[in-house]
Amino acid sequence: METPLPEKLSASMDEKSLAAWRFAEKAVPRFWQAAAFSGVGGLYAAFFAVLPDARHGNVFRIIFLHVPASWMSLFIYLCMAFWAGWGLFSAKRECFADSRLSHVMSSALAPTGALFTFLSLWTGALWGKPSWGTWWVWWDARLVSELILLFMYAGIISLRSAVDDPRRADKAVALLTLVGLVNIPVIYFSVRWWTTLHQGYSITLTRPPAMAPAAFWTLLLCVFACAMYTAAVSLTRFGNLLLEREGMAGWPRGAIPAENG
Amino acid sequence: MLRFICFVVRREFLLALRRQADIFSLLFFFIVVTSLFPLGAGPQPETLRKLAPGALWTSAMLAALLSLPRLFDDDYRDGALEQYALGTQRLACAVFGKIAAHWLVFGLPLALIAPLAGLQFGLPEHPLWVLTVSLAAGTPALSGIGAICAALTLGLRGGRVLLSLLALPLYIPVLVFGAGAVETALAGASAEAGLSFLAALSLAGVFFAPPAAAAALRVMME
To answer: Is residue A261 assigned to a domain?
Structure first.
C-alpha cells in the first residue's frame, strides 16, 4: 500500500496524473490512425511495390517485419531505461509526481518491447531457415544477445509483478532496467565486433543504404508503423495502469464521465 | 574505508567458517551435478571431452546461483544489513566486502576442486589448469552480478525463482567466455584471450556491482 501524502503535495500529483491521463486519452486515437495508415501502406508496398530480391527471391520480404521489430526491441528498451532513469532522478529531486508517472510509463512499455523482441527472433528464424539453412545458431553473437534481451524483458516484467508495494517495485525495476542497459550496445555492435552469420549493417547514417530505394523507403514506412503502434499501445497501457494504481485518488472521478444507469 | 571493507570481509569469512556445512554442501552440489552429465550423456570419452567445458561451467554457475541468497538473507533477517545501511560507512563498501568474501569462501574453493570434476570428463592436464584459472577469474563476476540480483529480490515471495530468472541471463557472457577458454585449451590453442576477457568482465562486475546492489538494497529495505 502507498503511504498517504500531505494534502498539498497530493493535490499537485492529482493534477499531473490527470493531465497525463488526458494526454494519453487524446493521443491514442491519433497514434492508432497513423499506425493503421502507415501499416497498410507499408504492407501494400512490401508485398506489391517492391521487386523480389535477386538472390533471396520473395523470402527477403520478411525484412519488412524483421527489421522494424528488431529496431523497436532496442528502441523500446532505450525508452524504458530513459523513463526509469528519469523516474529515479526526479525522485531524488523530490518531484514525486514526475517520478511516479515516469515509472508507470516505463512499465507500460515493457510488454510491447518483449513482444517485438520475440517477433524479431521469430521472423529472424523464419528468414534464417531458407537463407542460411538453419533456424538458429548458438555461436552468433547477434542472435544470442537478442535472446538475452528477451530474457531481460521477462525478468523486468516478473520482478514488477513480484514486488507488492508499487513504489518499491518502481525503484527495483528501474535499477534492473538500467543494469540491463549494458546489453544494448552489445546487440547493436555485435555484427561489427564478432564475425557472425548475421549480416552487417545495411543502413547507416553515413552511407547510402545497401538496398534499392523503393525497398528502403518501404522499410522506413514499416518502422514508422511499428513505432506508431508502440506509442498507441503503450499509451493505452499507461492510461490503464495509471487508473488502476490511482483509482482511489480524486482525479479519475472528474475525468471519466459516469456510466449510464 | 579500507579498514571497514576488511572488517566486513573478516566478519563474513568468520561467519562462513562457523557454518562450514553451507560451503561444503555447495561444493558437493557442484560435484554431484558434474557427475550427472556423464551419467546422462553416456560414458564415451570423446563425448565427455566435448561436453566438459560447457557442463563444468554450467554446473559452476548453478552452484553460484544457489549460493546467492546467503549473500544478504541472513544479515537482512538479523538486522545487520540495516546497521550497515544506517552506519557512517557507505553501504556500497559493505557490499563490496560481502562480494569479496563470497568469492573467497565460494569462488576460490570451487576453482580449486574443479580439476577433480574435470578428471571425471577425462580432461588432460593443460585444460584442467585453464579450467581452474578460468573459474578463479570468472567467479568474481558471478558474485558481483549475483549480488545485484540477490539485492533486487531481497525478501520477496518466490524470490529464489525470480533470482535465477534475473541472474542467469546476465551470467551468459561469463559462461560463454569461461567455457570458451577451456574449449580452446582443449583444442590445443592458447586460452589467453578468453581468460583476459573473463578477468575484464570480473573487474567491471566487481567495480560496478557494489553501488548498484547497494541502491537495490536500500529500495528493498525501506
So the answer is: no
Domain tally, chain A: 1
Residues of B with Cβ-Cβ distance to A163 under 8 angstroms:
156
* Assembly ipTM: 0.84
Q: Exposed/middle/buried for B125, CB within 10 Å: 0-12, 13-18, 19+?
A: exposed
Whether chain A has a CB inside 8 Å of the CB on B6: the answer is no
Q: Do B215 and A158 touch (CB under 8 A)?
A: no
The pLDDT tens digits for A89-99 are 988 888 888 88
Structural domain of A126? 16-255
Residue A9 lies in a domain: no
Q: What is the mean pLDDT of residues B92-104?
A: 93
Instruction: Pull the grid cell for residue B112.
Output: 580449486
Chain A residue with CA closest to B208: the answer is A179
> What pLDDT is recorded for position A1?
47
Residue A2 maps to a domain:
no
Query: What residues of A are in contact with residue B220 (Cβ under 8 Å)?
Result: 168, 172
